[in-house]
Amino acid sequence: PGGDFGAEPFAFRVQLAFDRSSVYPDVTARQASAAHPLGSSNNPASDDVMREAPFDFETVLAMSGTAVMFGNDVGVVGGSATATHRLDEKGTISATYVRTETVKPQGTPIFAAALRTNEGLIGYSERVDERLTLGFSVRVIDSTLSTTTAVLDVDSDTLGVDLTLGAFYEHNETINVGMMFGGGYAAIDTDGTLLGGPLSIDDDAYNWQWTTGVGIRAHETVYLLADVKVMHIETDTTGSVDYGRLSVGGEWFAEPWLAVRSGVSFTTAGHLTPSVGVGLYGNEDVVFEFAYVYNAFPEVELELTEAHLLTFGAAFVW
Question: Tens digit of pLDDT for each residue in 192-211?
Answer without folding.
Answer: 999 999 999 999 999 999 99
